Amino acid sequence: MLKSCVLSGCKKLGSLVLRRSVLPEQAGVFRSVCSIPRGASHGPCSLRRLAPSSAACQQRPHVFTACHLETRCYSEVNRENSHSEKDTGVSSEESHERDGDGAFQPFSPGPVDAFTIDVLVSLLRQENAVDMCVIKVPDQIKYTEYFIVASGISPRHLRAMALYAIKVYKFLKKDGDRNVKIEGKHSEDWMCIDFGNIVVHLMLPEIRDVYELEKLWTLRNYDEQLRNIPPDKLPEDFIYDVDITK
Amino acid sequence: MALPQLSRSLTGLLVGTSSIIQQRTFGVSPVAAAIQKMTRVRVVDNSSLGNTPYHRAPRVIHVYTKNGVGKVGDRVLLAIKGQKKKALIVGHKMPGERMSPRFDSNNVVLIEENGNPTGTRIKVPIPTHLRKLEGDFSKVLAIASSFV
Questions:
Q1: Residue B69 within any structural domain of the chain
Q2: I need a labelling partner for A59 at 20 to 30 A (CA). Which of A126, A185, B25, B131 fits?
């Protein structure tokens, strides 16, 4: 009973995900995996795997029932975008499907000796990051390789995720790697960490809707907020400088 | 960005562009220090504060560095539309390091107190060496659409 009301009463964060699949040649497959972990007084937990092809229902982890069962659900969305000729060939990672009874399965079994994208994604999952989105940035954009956007439940949750990621990075880094700091540590709603080849942005859902970073980084120049910016016109007496030689 | 009053020409040289420039009788010295107090700047994000027209251009009223000169990556305080706002310099007309980009206008991105950018997109190219500088620039780089 509880599970059905949680699933049916979920907020349609999936509508945001739908809005983002703009390019018609993208095969937008959305898969969300929700799991309800074991409650204190209830029996074994159950795993529901939703695999809708057109709608993704995201859940906000917030439910407290009268019998004080705390359910925390999380879902992650990994989008697959097919390569398109118009676009710069952005593709995102395959989503990893989880099976089993809700026990955490690491993706690379065995000792981990480098801080890779798999390590980061799995630790964010472990921390119950909401709506995690991993985007593989094409090589033409010489900024980073992977761009991760994740939401959290509260500012404290964001901070905890960020600190845990830093802790794991420090544990796994080799001597030559630079130290990483959290940017936006004082802000409540947006924190980012730049790991060199990966950039993680941890935001609250409200501010995520304002900035829509996933749209920008998948659509690049076709992003609608960019298109809505009116084109700049130079004033008629603007002249470029004659070359200044140093 | 250039204003109707502004013209740039090296001393003694008239750069021929439009007829309005050739009527000006004053010359302007080339760029001496990058961005300092009272420089007029161009806001390059899509925030409403930066883009609504006003009869005065946004001016820098304080530069948050040890010397009062602002380069790329420095925070400044702007006076925009009668209010004070913090901003981040993302490009200036003064030549910097070799093999680093020089812009034709002094570009600035509006920022809140906690470092969040006020606008949501930046159309103008942003220098990538911002990443290596000390400071919180990932947010600005995340909303940029093109890099130089």
A1: yes
A2: A185
Q: What is the CATH number of the domain that holds B53?
A: 2.40.150.20
Residue of B nearest to A198 (CA): B138
Please report, for residues A51, B47, B82, B109, the alpha-carbon distance to residue A203 in angstroms, rounded to integers and kept in the order given.
26, 20, 31, 20
B46/A237 Cβ within 8 A: no
Q: Is residue B27 part of a domain?
A: no
Question: Which phi and psi (to 5°) does residue A153 adopt?
Answer: -85, -40
Q: Do A216 and B116 touch (CB under 8 A)?
A: no
Domain with B96 in it: 35-143
Write out residues 202-231 of A within 8 Å (CB-CB) of B.
207, 210-213, 216-217, 220-221, 223, 225-226, 228-229
Q: Which residues of chain A have pLDDT under 50?
A: 1-102, 243-246
Domain annotation covers residue B28: no
Residue B4's alpha-carbon distances to A117, A243, B88, in angstroms, are 51, 22, 25
A139 touches chain B (CB under 8 A): no
A189 touches chain B (CB under 8 A): yes
Predicted confidence (pLDDT) per residue in B68-81, tens digit? 999 999 999 999 99
Query: Which tens digits make up the pLDDT trace of A140-197?
Result: 888 889 999 999 999 999 999 999 999 999 888 877 777 788 888 888 889 999 988 8
Beta strands, E only, chain B: 42-43, 59-63, 75-80, 83-91, 107-111
- Contacts A236 to B, Cβ<8 Å: 18, 20
What is the domain count for chain B?
A: 1
Q: Is B148 part of any domain?
A: no
